[in-house]
Amino acid sequence: MSRSPDVHTTFRSRRWLRWLAPAGPMALAATLVIPHAAQAADPTPETHAACYVDVPQVTVTPGFGSSPDTGTGQSGPGGTIRCIGTIRGARVVSDPGPLSVTFTYGTGPLSSLTKGDTCLAGSGDGTVSATVPVLQGQPVILTGPIHFGFLGPIGSYYGHFGEIMFAGIGESLPDLSANPTPNCLTTPITKLSIRGQFGLKNL
Fold first, then answer.
1. Which among 106, 123, 150, 157 could disulfide-bond with 110, CB atoms 3.0 to 4.6 Å apart, if both were Cys?
2. Sequence-distant (≥ 6) Cβ neighbours of residue 173 within 8 angstroms
3. pLDDT score at 132
4. What is the separation of C-alpha 174 from the centre of its chain, rounded to a whole number of angstroms?
5. Sequence spans of domains, the chain
6. b vs e for 130-162, b when ≥16 Cβ sit within 10 Å of the residue's Cβ?
7. Residue % of the chain over a pLDDT of 90
8. pTM (predicted TM-score)
9. What's the alpha-carbon Rg for the chain, to the nearest Å?
């Protein structure tokens, strides 16, 4: 014995078909394809954070003086990074993590105008590596290129850690404990410390 169709179900089905009819087969295809595509998508883990860096021992060779020059720089022990926010989907904590940087100076866009860097202005490129503690799980490892420029003690820098971009500002302070005391004019600055902050977000 066949079952009689439900009147209310039939009415709703016809009303649904009349609503779809003006859109044609594309609307029906969209209703079938879009959920599948959304399910298959693999979004990039969220990154939205602010970080603060303190690099107390940076050695510069041959040093920043009054005459344009090129050289290299490297951070020593004690460099730290503190972040708040989310990096690659992980909630980070404000506990310090290690940070190191190596760079060349006198080779950036600003340096091309002066044929090198002085203690007053310059630019360069390098590599920065950091380990950021997170609330749960393994720390986030960040490594990537950095580009910088400075006028006097204030500098700006930017770069990326893979799919994450960063940009910020910093201040450099010469180490005045050396003998003779660096003064830029007659004695170059060979040791300094850097403090700065930057933001991170997905590219």
1. 123
2. 153, 192, 193, 194, 195
3. 97
4. 26
5. 7-40, 48-202
6. bbbbbeeeebbebeeebbbbbeeeebbbebbbe
7. 67
8. 0.75
9. 28
